[in-house]
Amino acid sequence: MRIAFFGGTFDPPHRGHLAIAQAAAERLRLDRVLFAPVGNQPLKNDSSVASFEDRVAMVKLAISGDSRFELSTIDAPRPDYRPNYTIDTIRLLKETLQPEDHLFCLVGADSFLSLPRWYRAAELLFDCDFIVAGRPGFDFPSAEKALPKNVHISGEPSHEPGLSTLTLTNDVRQSSTFYFLPDLREEISATEVRMALAGHFADDGALPRPVAEYIRAHHLYQ
């Protein structure tokens, strides 16, 4: 199976998240996309406004219309309260898969640009292939600047409609594949959605209807 891990705060999950997952699933022929709300985001202290339980419930509602999408709680808050590092989660997830399964890590452009701050990023890039959803202004030179210093782009990228591909290598001759979805334009910010909800002037068009109804019913972000 071809499986993508899609982690994030999902606070709240919005149509931009779904657009990224749909594009990745279609263009890379994914069998499953695992939406995994993070318990304790290491780069954002106290980043989650809604509780983990509420975010899990909202993700479940948001993805219910696509059989390829699945809720995962593999990134739930840790009993020892340590941050949820992506490298630990990916390695734990790989232990549950079959040897023939192909695992990807799906991220948005903004998340990828913060890669230099990720825990053990140089190792993570070779634990699985990455799918990066583009946004205006993000291109291969932008991606290359975010790579750890001992990780390099090998050769020239290949291009096909809706998908570009390049190979990453490191100093110990490991390699992985970087997939870039270049033409996504879903400029929805969860922060702006929360601010709008707090001001009672949110445009529910940014949210799947079941998520908007859940937020209203549970008085979230007020």
Q: What are the secondary-structure elements, in order, as H or E? A: EHEHEHEHHEHEEEHH
Supply the CATH architecture: 3-Layer(aba) Sandwich
CATH class type: Alpha Beta
| CA-atom Rg in angstroms | 17 Å
Trace the largest sheet across and list its strands: 3-2-1-4-5-8-7-6
Helix content: 25-40%
Helices and strands in order:
Layout: E1 2-8, H1 15-27, E2 32-37, H2 52-62, E3 69-71, H3 86-95, E4 102-108, H4 109-113, H5 121-124, E5 129-133, H6 140-145, E6 151-160, E7 163-170, E8 175-181, H7 190-198, H8 209-218
Parallel strand pairs: 1-2, 1-4, 2-3, 4-5, 5-8
Antiparallel strand pairs: 6-7, 7-8
Helix pairs in contact: 2-8
Which features does this protein show?
222 residues; eight-stranded mixed beta sheet; 8 strands; alpha/beta; Rossmann fold
What's a quick, concise take on this entry?
By secondary structure, the chain is α/β, with parallel strands linked by helices. It has one domain: Rossmann fold (3-Layer(aba) Sandwich), CATH 3.40.50.620.
Task: Describe the structure in your own words.
This protein is of the alpha/beta class and 222 residues long. The chain has one domain (2-188): HUPs (Rossmann fold, 3-Layer(aba) Sandwich). The chain has 8 helices and 8 strands. An 8-stranded mixed beta sheet has the order 3-2-1-4-5-8-7-6.
